[in-house]
Design goal:
The protein has five helices and three strands. The chain is α+β, with helices and mostly antiparallel strands. The protein has a three-stranded antiparallel β-sheet. A hairpin with a 2-residue loop joins β2 and β3. α2 crosses α4. The longest helix is centred in the last third of the chain and has 29 residues. The chain is elongated, with a radius of gyration of 20 Å. The two termini are about 35 Å apart.
């Protein structure tokens, strides 16, 4: 069962534009809204809305500097998703081990 943090992260990253913005910040480091808008293919208000959602999920941090705001990725915020992935990996590995055992018994 997912906890609330995982659910928020999944919902936030489900949007391909938000995911692309987060990935760009991870790859390129701190960027302004203007720099993100230049390559996003959407309007500045739309980029700002996506950044707000990413910030609320803890995936980005903002840093005001004069008239501009700089955004940076917070990849450590993905920890709940990594935990969930580890749990699912263990679950499915045990299922596959059980299936493998069953198939071996059937072959005997």
């Amino acid at each position: 069962m997912q906890n609330n943090a995982s659910e928020v992260l999944f919902k936030t990253l489900a949007d391909p534009t938000r995911r692309a913005i987060f990935e760009r910040l991870c790859r390129d480091g701190e960027l302004t809204v203007g720099a993100l808008t230049a390559q996003a293919g959407i309007s500045q208000p739309a980029v700002s809305k996506h950044l707000k959602n990413l910030k609320e999920a803890g995936l980005v941090r903002d840093r005001p500097a004069g008239r501009q705001t700089h955004f940076s990725a917070q990849p450590q915020a993905l920890a709940p998703l990594l935990d969930w992935t580890a749990q699912m990996t263990a679950f499915w590995e045990s299922r596959f081990d059980s299936l493998d055992d069953l198939l071996k018994r059937m072959d005997q």
